[in-house]
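[job 0417] fold request received: Formate--tetrahydrofolate ligase
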Amino acid sequence: MAWDATQMKDWQIAEAAEAAGNLPSTEKYQEILGLQKDEIIPYGKTPKVDFLKVIDRLKDKPDGNYIEVTAITPTPLGEGKSTTSIGIMEGLGKRGVNVGGALRQPSGGPTMNVKGTAAGGGNALLIPMTEFSLGLTGDINDIMNAHNLGMVAMNARMQHEANYTDAELAKRNLKRLDIDPKNIEMGWVIDFAAQGLRNIIMGLGGKKDGFMMHSKFGIAVGSELMAILAVAKDLADMRERFKHIVVGYNRQGEPVTTGDLEVDGAMTAWMRNTINPTLCSTVEGQPCFVHAGPFANIAIGQSSIIADRIGLKCFDYHVTESGFAADIGFEKFWNVKCRLSGLKPNVSILVATVRALKMHGGGPTVVPGRPLPDEYTKENLGLLEKGCENMVHLINMIKKSGIKPVVCINAFYTDTAAEHALVKRIAEQAGARAAVSEHWAKGGDGALDLADAVMDACKEKVDFKYLYPLEMPLRQRVELIAKEVYGADGVDWAPLAQEKAQKFESDPKYADYCTMMVKSHLSLSHEPTWKGVPKGWRLPIRDILVYGGAKFLCPMAGAISLMPGTSSDPAYRRIDVDVNTGKVSGLF
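[job 0417] inference complete; emitting C-alpha cells
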C-alpha cells in the first residue's frame, strides 16, 4: 500500500510501514537474498552481511544488471537521488524482478541540519528510518574513532619528541620522526556540521598537555578512512591501505604515515566490523545494503565496492547511488570506482526535477528553510526550457562513458503535465530515454514507467570507456575533467598546487593514484552561484590533498571547506523522543 505522502511526515510513513510488517526479519532477509545462516550477522533491526563468506561462495555466479543513480546539478534542497534509488527498486519490484540496491549511510551533519537524512522520502523510503538516520550499526562512529586515534598518535609522538632526547626516545623503543608542525596533512573529524572547529589551536597548557599546534576538524564522512571503506576489496586490503595514510611531513619534506606511528593496526581493529554491509529495506520490502558515506564534493561519495559486488551476485538488478550531481558523483563512479572495482554499469539514471531546472533557467535563489518562490510552484515553461541546458550538458557527459542514460523526471505535486512533457521531449532529443516517476507519492506503482525504461536500457550493449588512461599525468587529467565534464575553458593552478602537482607527476609512487576532485556540488563550476551551464570560465585549483591509503590525489577547486556549517534553523530543533515509547519523531 502507499501512504498519503502529502499528509504524513516521512518518519510517520516509516513507522506505519514497520507496523504493517514491511520490514523483513533477519530470517526473511536470508530467504530473499539466498544467504546461508552463517552469512548474516544479527544486529537488531539491521543485520549485517558477512561479505567474505558471501562473495567466496558466489564468486562464480554471473553478475546481475548494474544500475547507477546520479542527478542534474541540484538546488541546496537536493533533487531526490536517494528517493529515486529507492523508487526504482520499488518499481522494479512491482514488475516482479529480483531487485535490491546499495545506498550510502547518512551523516549526522545533514541529518541534524537542513538537508535531512538520506532515507529517501514519501513512499520511496528506507526503513527502519530511525536506526538508518541515527548511527545504524556504528560504521561512522568506528571511522571517527579510528581516524582520531591516528591524530592522537601523531600529537602524542610530537609531544614526546619535543620533551625527550634521542637517547630517551630509544629507551622507549621510539625513533625520532621529526614531524613538521607547519606541514600537517591530517586533522580531526566529527560527524556534525561544526564550522567552529574548522580551525583550532590545540595543546594549550604545559608540556604535559600535548604538542601545541594549529589543527582542524573535518566532517567524519570526508575522512580518508571512509574513502578506504568505499574502495577496499576486503579486510586485508583495508589493513594494507591503513598503513599508508599520510598524517603529515617531516622537516625534510618526506611523508609521515600511520604506519610510521605504528597505529595502523589499532585503527584497523576499530574498523574491523565496518567491512560488512548493513541491511535495510524499502517500505515495500526490497532489500538494500547500506555501506560507505556521502559528500561527493569532498569525498568519493559512493556506496561501497563491497556492497555492489554482493548486490550484483544476489540481485538480477542492482541499484547503486552516487553522491550529488553527475559532474561529481557520476564522474567519480565512472573514472575511479569502476576502474578500481572492474565493474561496468548497464545504465545510469539521471534524476531531474522541474524545480532545479527552473533554478538553472534563472529562477530565484532557493534558500533552505524558506518557502519556495512562486516560480517553482507555478507553470513557467520558458524558465524550465532555459534550465534544461544543465540536464542536456550532463546527458552528453554521461554518454562519453558509452552509456545511454535514462532521465528520471522526479515528479513533485506542484509540477504540471506540460512541464513534464517539455523536459521529456528535450531529454529524448539529447539522446536519452526519459520517464516521469511518481515514486514519492505512489511508491513502486508510481515508478513503473521508469522501471520499464531502465529494463529496456539494460538490454542495450554498453561500450564502457574511461575519460582518461591512468597513465595520463595529473594536470592533464584535471584539465580534461574541467573541460569535458564541467565545461571550463581550462585550469588555473595556484603556486602551491602547481608545486605539488609537479612533485606528484615526477614521483613514480603516485603514478597509479586516482584523481578525486574536490568541488562545489551546487554548480558545474567551482562557484556555487553560477547556475545552468556557465560559459567563459576557468577552474582554479588552490591545493592538492594526499590520501596515501586510499591512493587518491585530491585537487581542491575554489574555496570549498571540508567541514560544512550548521544553519540558523537546523533540523535538530524539531527532532525529539517519546519518553513513554522511545520512538523518535521529526526526522525527515
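[job 0417] notes: The chain has 20 helices and 25 strands. The radius of gyration is 24 Å.
[job 0417] exit 0
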